[in-house]
Specification:
- By secondary structure, the protein is α+β, with helices and mostly antiparallel strands.
- It has one domain: Nucleoside Triphosphate Pyrophosphohydrolase, CATH 3.90.79.10.
- The protein contains two helices and seven strands, in the order ββββαβββα.
- The chain has helices spanning about 45-55, 115-130; strands at about 5-10, 20-25, 30-35, 35-40, 65-75, 75-85, 100-105.
- It has a four-stranded mixed beta sheet, with helices on both faces. The protein has a three-stranded antiparallel beta sheet with strand order 3-2-7.
- The longest helix has 14 residues, at about 115-130.
């Protein structure tokens, strides 16, 4: 019997409503996706999101400023959607080039190309909750 693993997907939304995505470089087709990763040890979902965001993009946010908005079960992974809305301008850097890179800010209602499936699912959940 396989076990369920836990991870986070982080929606970083700027004041204009744009979201941060990067290329999932290890995936076929290199789709655009939100940052994210696996929970470690006893960390909370928000602590995991803050850690993964810093590790992948260099964006440092206090876990207390993050909000979990959804949970989705996909292929044995329970993925929590976490919303980050920085109060200041943030500039992502590619810190894990083997995983995620080529960051850009996109309009989630009109992405320039199809997004990674999990990213699409989490953005739909967020839109349903906040009407954006």
């Amino acid at each position: 019997m396989s076990s369920t693993r836990a991870a986070v997907g982080i929606v970083v939304r700027d004041p204009d409503g744009l979201i941060l995505v990067g290329r999932r470089l290890a995936e076929p087709g290199r789709p655009l996706a939100i940052p994210g990763g696996k929970l470690e040890g006893e960390e909370t979902i928000e602590a995991c999101a803050a850690r993964e965001l810093a590790e992948e993009t260099g964006i440092a946010l206090d876990p207390d400023t993050l909000r979990t908005f959804a949970a989705i079960l996909v292929d044995g992974w329970l993925v929590a959607g976490v919303l980050a809305e920085p109060l200041h301008t943030v500039h992502p850097r590619v810190l894990e080039p083997e995983k995620l890179g080529a960051f850009e800010w996109i309009d989630p209602s009109a992405p320039p190309e199809p997004l990674f499936e999990l990213t699409t699912a989490l953005l739909a959940r967020l839109r349903a909750q906040v009407g954006t």
